[in-house]
Every structure is written in C-alpha cells, then in structure tokens.
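Dear all,

This email documents one entry for the complex benchmark we are building for the journal club exercise. For each entry we list the sequence lines for every component of the assembly. Then comes the predicted three-dimensional structure of the complex as a token string, followed by one or two observations. Please use this as the template for your own entries, and keep the labels exactly as they appear.
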Amino acid sequence: MLPIFSLTLRQLSGKWRLTIMSVLALLPVAIAVLMVSFDGAPTVEEFEVAVLSSILAGAISPLVVLAIASAAFANEIEDKTLANLTLAPVPRWQIVLPKLLAAICVSGPFIAISAFLTGYFAYSADIRAALAVTGSAIIGVALYSSAFVWLGLKTTRAIGYGLLYIVLWEGFFSSFVMGVRLFSVRYYSIAWMHGFDERRFAGFDDFSFGLAVVASVVVFGGFSLLSIRRLRHMDVP
Amino acid sequence: MGALPAVDTVTTNDVAPVIRVDHVSRWFGSVVAVSDVTFDVKPGITGLLGPNGAGKTTLLRMMTGLTGTSDGTVTVFEEPVRRNPPLYGRMGVMSEHETVYGFMKGRDFVRMMGRLRGVTDEAAVDKAINFVDLADAAHRPMGTYSRGMRQRMRLAGTLVHDPEILILDEPLNGADPRQRVHFQTLLRQLAAEGRTIVLSSHILEEVEQLADTVLLIVNGKLAASGDFRAIRVALDERPYHVLVVSDSPRELAAAVVKLESVDAVNVDPDGTLVVLSRNVRDLQIELPRLAQSAAISLRRVEPLDDSLESVFGYLVER
Amino acid sequence: MTGQPEVTKREGTVFDIGYQNYTGPREGRNRARLSVIKNGVRTSLGFGRGALAKVLPWLFIGVLVFIAIIMALVAGAADRLIGPEDAEQLNLPSHSDFYGIASIIFFVFAAVGAPELLCPDRREGVINLYLVRPLTGSDYAFSRWLAFFMVMVAVAWLPQFILLIGLIMGDPQPVDYLLDNWLDIPKFLAAGIPLAAYTTTLALLTAAFTTRRAYAAVFLVGLFVITTPFTTGLASEIGGTAGQWISMFNLSNIPVHVNDVIFGEPSVITREAPAAELSAWILVGWFLLWTLVPAGVLWVRYRRLTP
C-alpha cells in the first residue's frame, strides 16, 4: 500500500494546487482575525454560524477536499494510468485505502491549520476550543474525502456534481431544511465540535453526538466500500 | 530474466493452453466490438492482427481483466481473469496508452511496479532496466523521455516481476528501427524462456517475423488463426498469384493457360506474367516442363502472396 | 433483303473514382471561427456526446429554472392569499432580484463548463489541430469566449422568461400585469449580458492557466464563495468610503450591481451592500474593469500560441 500512498501524495501535491489550497484555507483565519480586531465584533453564536459552519465546514473544507480527493482516482482515469495499479495482484481495498489516506493527508493539514488558527483567534487563545474546531474539521475532511474519492471514481464530471452538492446541499438546503441536516457532513462536523467542547454551538440540538459518530462511521465506511466496489466492477481505461 | 521451463513450441498441440477465450463477445450499447470469438493461447508468441476498429484492444482488455465480457469467458491458467487480482502477479500487461507518470524517475517507476507485485529486490529492478537498455536514463523523470524511451521503460515495468504471461498492446509505437530490432530480440528471448506472449500490432512484417501463431480479427470476429502460411493454404477459394518473368511472355502465357492447374493468366504491360493457380504444387512441376518444351527461358518465378500482408489484406477485404 | 444490318451504338463512361482534388470554394478564417464557436456551444451543452454529458449542464439549467418557478409560485400564492395590493407591499423577489439570488449557480455553471472548452484541448494537444487551420490563437480564444458567452446568455434569459410567464399567469389580471411590467423584459435581457460576459471571462481566464478542469473550477468557485463574507464583514466593520470600496471586492456582486443600475433599484442581495451606495458610473466602470482586464489577459495568453 505504501507505493500507492507515496504515488498519490506526489500526484496531489503540485505547487500551484497547494498554493491555491493555502489561499482558500487562510481566508477563514483572516475573517476571524478581522472580526475580533474591530469594535462591534459579532456574538459567539453569530461567529460560529457564519464562519465555522457556513465558511469553514460548509464551503472551504469541502471545496479544498473536492479539488484534492476527487483527483485521487480521476486524474489517473483521465491520464489512463490507473491500469498500472489495478493490474497489481492486490485486493482492491489496498488500492482505495492508500488513495483515500493520501487525499486526507494532503488536504487535512490545510484545513486543520486553518481551523486551529480560526478557533485560536476567535476564542481568544482558548486551546480547548481551538482543538475542538480542529478535531471536527479533520473529521469533516475525512468524511468529505471518502465521498469525493468515490465521486472521482464514479464519474468524469466529479467536480461539477461535487460543486452542486456543496452549493445546494451543504450550502443551501442544510441551512433551511432540518431533515437535510441528518445527511449533511457540515452538520456532522458541527455535532463533533459540540461533542468535543459543549460550549461550541452551545444551542445545537439537531441531533445527538452519538448519532453524529454513528453517521460519520457510516458515511466514511459506506463511501469507502462503494469506492472499493466501484474499482472492482468498473472497466479500467 | 529468469528462465522458465523450456517448452517445445513446435509441437504446441500437446501443450495446455495458458489463455482460453471461449465464445467471448463484447458490446457497448448497440455497438458490437467483439463477436463470439474463441481461441486458445499457448506458450510462444501470438500476434493479434486486425485493422483499426477490429476489436483487438477490446479483446486484449478482456484477456487482462480490465474489461468484462458481455458474453463468454476468458480464463488464464484455468482461472477466470476478471476480478481475480492474485492472477495479475503472473501477468505483465502493457496497454496501448503511452501516458506515464511524468514526474517519476524511470527507476522509481519500475521499482513501484515491482513493489506492487511483491518484488522488493533492487536487483530485479536493475535487471529489468538493463533488459530494455535504459540504465543511463533511469535516473531522469519520464517526462523528459522520448516516446520510444517511455515505451521501453513501460516494458521494463511490465517485466520487473518476471511474469509468465506478457500481453502487449501496440508495444512498438514510437520505436525507431534500431529499437524495433532490439525489441524483437527481447521478445524472442522471452519466448524462448517459455513465456506466453500476446502482442497486437499494425506492423505486419514484424508479426510475420516474430509470431508463431497469428490471430486475425476483422470486424470483431476471428477471421483466421494459426501459422499464416497454413492460413494461406486454407484459403483455397482464392488462387495463388505467381509472378513469372520470361523471354517470351505471350508465347508462355498462351501455353500456360492450357494447364489444368492454372485458373487465369494476366500479362502486365511490362511483359511479366501473373499466373493464378489453386494448385501451386502441380504448377511448380508443369511450368518448367512447359517452358523447356517451348524453348522459353524462365528468368524469375516468385509467389506474390506468400506473405502475411497478402493474407491479411485478403481476409480484411472479403 | 440487302444492305448493312443496323448497328446501335451503345455509350458508356468510365469514371475515375480515385483521389480527386477539391476544387470547390474554400472558406477562410470566418468559417473556421464559426466552426469553433459552434463546437464550443455544443460542448458546453453536452450536444453531440452521450446522454451522460448532457446531465450536468442541464441539471444546472434545471436548478435555475426551478428557482424561477419557485419565485413565480410564491408571488402567485401571495396574490391569492393576501390580495395583489398587499402582496405588492411585501416586495417579493422578482426579475430584478433573480440574477442576484441565482448568481452562485451561474458562477458554478461557468466554473464547471468553461474549463471544458479550453483545458482538454491543451491537455490532449488538440489545440494544435486548430492552429494549423486559418485560425490564430486570438481567433480560437475569442471563438471559445463567444461560444460560452452565448450559452451563458441563454442560460440567464431562459429562467427569466419562465419567471415572466409564471408571474403573468399567476396574476389575477394577466394582461394588465404584462402591460404594467413589460419594461422588465428589456431590463432583464440587458442585465443578463453583463452577467454572462463577466462569468464567461473569469471562468475562461482561470481555465487558461491550468490543464486540469477540476482545479480551475474549484479555484473560481472558492474565490466567489469566499469573497462574499470576507468583504461583507470587513466593509460593514470599517464603514464609510473605505467600506464601500472593500464591498466592491465582493466578486459575486459585481455583475449584480450592474443589474441594479439597469433596473434602477438594488436587488435583495445587494440592498445591504455598502457598494450599492456608489454611483452607477463607478459600478459599471468597476464591472468593465473586472471583465475587460481579464479578457485582455486571456487574449494575451492565447495570442502567441502557434502549432
């Protein structure tokens, strides 16, 4: 699995890509710094909804992960090099898992650092709060990665469908339709944040922390299994 | 490369087939790419020929498990090849796609291909790279390679784990004449070690020189299989064309046309005769006798269609 | 019976069916441009490919139409429930608000669709086949731009027409509604053009710098999504003229401000934006800057291309 992991790390770590992801990941930090720098700073609740929920968990994290995780297989399919891997005498999960882990390892640090700094500045250097934000962001990265790795295997238009999902489902419907939150990675992240530190999203009662944990496992495991199944059944170009 | 137990490829009738394609068809929507093809592949070199769009690549992809069949089965070493990863360790596959990981050094690529197939010994990597004569370039990223170098390094990646079966789709694309000769030598050496090699190519001359067995695919169907000369003999509905150059072409033509073994005679403007005959054996005996009795000197007698190109052309066109 | 038998002369012709030189008219650069434009339009909408290629672009169009239908239904329901006079007081979103409300969908559509016109050609090397024709790099870039611009205009206008039909049919007095509001038609037609030009130019420019469609799309959407809260928050904090100018950097609002100028009133999206207080000349000039400069960069990038 290590050769595939190393290969994918290298494939996903182009200079321009990393630069663009860095710029995107820094924006929530910049917003947090500006918000606390000025008089008339928003309330904790307003900040959490606007920055942690809408921007970080609902926009930046899925966008960064979409660009990286969907490319894990999509680039190989586009370049027609996937057969180098699928013709190896290894179980398909030993191809999917390192690809997924590599995607998480490339996008994770950007989001983790962004989340930590955003939480640190916003909560006046409260380490527990910063770590809660970071932990939930990493879990969000893992969940989004599993979904977008599968999407990159499933279709050559992964970016289009992924963007529609982010904008409509995570961005719009989950904000206004309560039932959608049960199927929203953004709200799982919020639930994890609340679970790590009950002061974060103090009024959150859409669903319990336990349900968020189970749902997260189901999402991660489910999409991983779907990816393995897809790789097993697809015609490799 | 490590030598496999030698197999006498002349008496291949006694050798069990390594790859069996049994009533295989593949369609994509309403397009039938391969239609009810059955054949066995035994150790040695098998050439897969056909015009563009005949279904060669689809057939090779089914033989490697990259694509499933719509009907029929493909087995390798008597096991289904599709969704059977352990079998891939015994196969080396080089697809028609020439793209490589441009950022990766040649040596790293071959090493990765070896590791994926359980080969951790660096000596195997060296051996594969030396086999394709790319030791000097192995430290450079493959994005800096010429097309021929990329193909050779891909071949090294295909050979590093010492596979018993090699399936090569258009392996000589982009190779210059010197590389072609070198490649042919490599393939003969690998085949002599007992490996089973299936290669598809557009270059009839090379397949003619290399392949012990030829599979001719036309419009998704298997048009012919076996030694191409035996195929030619089997095409008994088509007369042989024999070129005859003599000092009295018209006189010879008038005499030759009366022979039982001759179907027709064409006289070219330059005076050469092209004799059409379904019974070349009798023609071989009768023609010199006829020439002698008519006091005509024969300067040249040459079969015009004793070549794979001719067989290929006829089967594609009919 | 004497005399020669009659001989009927039969005629026949042997045709040369070998290679023939083309001797017909040869159309030049304009024909080449037109071909690239036509190909661009077809590619953007998935025509000439399998069914799957059509799903994504038409899904976007479907979402936009859906938004328009919802707006029409809400307006019609309000009329029926509380009466036309009271419904008008509610100032429900209408034609002037549509582009602002749906702007993110337009941007995502452009971000996903525009790279399809540029990235694969460069990635696969097909662009060389274009450039060996009587077509320069500028022709190619302009033709691709025009193709996608036409598609964006159509995508912008279609839901507006559906909204118009819905509003007319939902009104208790359809003819009166049309007579009272017919000016909305040229306004939304005009407002769709800057939106199409802006999104087309920025999306193609981003695509011109990468061969991977994915990165172009994500970068563009990220930019649009992120500048909104960033500039909004900062602008409202700082206030004053500085705040207004910071608000101008809300990239998703730039064409919507032009829409507001055309309709003569701010939309629901830009109503609270400090930039809305700036003069129409500044707003239009800003839009032109953000459209023409990227267009110039795009032109420069492709101008020097040779096969």
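Observations: Chain C has 13 helices and no strands. The CA atoms of residues 37 and 147 of chain C lie 5 Å apart.
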